Amino acid sequence: MKIIKHAVAGTVESSDIMITVQPVETEENTIELESSVEKQFGQQIRKVITEILEKTGVHGVAVTAVDKGALDCTIKARMITALHRAAETESYHWKELDLWND
């Protein structure tokens, strides 16, 4: 999946996460996280974000996440939505990516 533009998914409401993705000049992915529970769950949030980037084959993107206590399934859904919006894809291949089985 090639990221071609800036995109956002989610909100800053309680129990949600706002994910912003944008293409960068390098092939490296970066993750910037703001969360009131970062000390407790920051590592897990980054792990979920990284897992989605790897499974979708995305490289060269900057991810900004503003977390308000989202569960892993919400983080996955917001990441997938933001990436598809940023890639301007019109179809989703959920089963092929095997994103929901841990």
TrEMBL record:
State the name under which the record lists this protein.
Answer: Citrate lyase acyl carrier protein
Natural source organism = Vagococcus acidifermentans
Q: Subunit arrangement?
A: Oligomer with a subunit composition of (alpha,beta,gamma)6.
Which subcellular locations apply to this protein? Cytoplasm
Keywords, sorted A to Z: Cytoplasm, Lyase, Phosphoprotein
Please tell me one Gene Ontology term that the record gives under cellular component: cytoplasm
GO terms for molecular function, please?
A: lyase activity
Principal place of residence: cytoplasm
Oxidoreductase as a keyword? no
What does the function comment of this entry state? Covalent carrier of the coenzyme of citrate lyase.
**List-wise, which residues carry O-(phosphoribosyl dephospho-coenzyme A)serine?**
S14
Q: Belongs to which family?
A: Belongs to the CitD family.
